[in-house]
Amino acid sequence: MDLERVNAYMALVEKSETQTLKPVGSKLKVGVDLGTAYIVIVVLDEENNPVACEKQAASVLRDGVVVDYLGALAIVRSLKEKLEERLGRELLQCAIAMPAGTESSVKTHQYVAEGAGFEVTNVLDEPTAANAIYQIVDGVVVDIGGGTTGLAFFKDGRVIRTEDEATGGTHVSLVLSGNYHINFQEAEQIKQDYKRHREIMPVVKAVIEKMASIIRKYVDQEAVDTIYLCGGTCCLTGIENIIQNYVGIPTVKAENPFLVTPAGIAINCKI
Questions:
Q1: Where are the domains of the chain?
Q2: What pTM did the predictor assign?
Q3: Position 195 pLDDT exceeds 90
Q4: Which architecture does CATH list for 131-257?
């Protein structure tokens, strides 16, 4: 992976959260990422340049499955309207993605996007979407979101296998909540405060090692030379070092792993 290229691209995606960037061409590509902790919509132009991004904290999914359809619909519709107001035009097509192993929930995700006014033109799994950014030919992409740890194995640039188990950022927040005797939302805020990551790492290390054990369970150490991380939970400072030490395989991540998957979903939007 060309980490410099990835980081430069993700910096533009992050910039598009607060600044609408001028698109090339007339067509726009949209990625709708229904996450356990956040719902994110990324807009790219037809050459995959970042244009705009909106996100909102949400608790309408559990382990990648929609449990509050009306709540999810309301958030996606609201984010879509914000983006359309910023862009001065209607957004028509989008792609969506599922955590690996939750393909049975495709219809619900699709109904949410369609209910908000999108035509869904592509459906894929989240680690595959992330690889549209990473562009791994041979290796493993691990997407650690709010509810799940998902793996996609690539050979010659194609997915040959996916795995997924329930452990993610929500479990980190639950541990913080119990340790500090605070509610879940306060724990979420601590988790997202980069200045406190060094403080909380000893508290949540066991949860991260649980994620690492999921990775080690499925990864052949002799066949895989690098693990590539993405997903919001991977924003935790030093998580790659804990996973690398536990699994025994070099582990890397982008500077902003949170937006990798939604941007990759948008790249896969067919227009």
A1: 3-125+259-267, 131-257
A2: 0.86
A3: yes
A4: 2-Layer Sandwich (3.30)
